[in-house]
Each structure stands twice: as structure tokens, then as C-alpha cells.
Amino acid sequence: MEFLVRPVRNQPDVAEVRYDCECGCKPRARYQKGKDEANHEHCCCGRVHFVGAKAEERLQAYLADRRAKGEDAGIAYALHTASVQAPWGEPIGVAYALPDKPKAH
Ligand SMILES: [Zn+2]
Ligand SMILES: [Zn+2]
Description:
The chain is mostly beta strands. It is built from 1 helix and 7 strands. Helix content is 13%, strand content 44%. The chain has a 4-stranded antiparallel β-sheet. The site of one zinc ion has 7 residues, from loops.
């Protein structure tokens, strides 16, 4: 997975991190400089990425919550992490999960 960082118009302290998903979508999530939070997009095919502070921890909590609700029955995820560089020069953490059986777009 290759993540691209884009600055956001008129918001110099916000970065948008996206990738070209195999299903054809372009999922994106934003991170605001200095915030103790991570945002995510869960693609239609089941791939999901988190961007920001404690991205991996938050991804794991998100998946655990879905599993507890029975939303991911029968799906196994492989978790990965990456790092991208923000427009302001700092690294931003990225964590993503790939389902063993992605859904069709
Ligand atoms: Zn997708
Ligand atoms: Zn899609």
C-alpha cells in the first residue's frame, strides 16, 4: 500500500492521507497537527486505514469493537503500519488492516 499525503486548502496544519485502493476507491483520512486523535476511512471493500496519533492502537480498538458487535464475523485482518511525512515536516503514523476476503466494490 502506498500512502500519499496532501495538504488541505486553507488548513496548513491538516494533512490528508490517501491511497489508491485495489477496489477502485480512493479512501482518505485527515490528521490535524498536534491532535491526540486519529481518523479513518473504512473502504467499501473492507480495507481500513487510520491516520494520526496512536493509529495502530486505535485501529485495533476499532476492529475489536466491530468484532464485539458481530460486524466482522468470519473476517480475519492482517494489520500493518506505515509512516508518512506531513507537509509541516513531522512523521504521521498510519495503520491499516487488510481483510483476508475483500468485498467487491
Ligand atoms: Zn477498497
Ligand atoms: Zn470501493
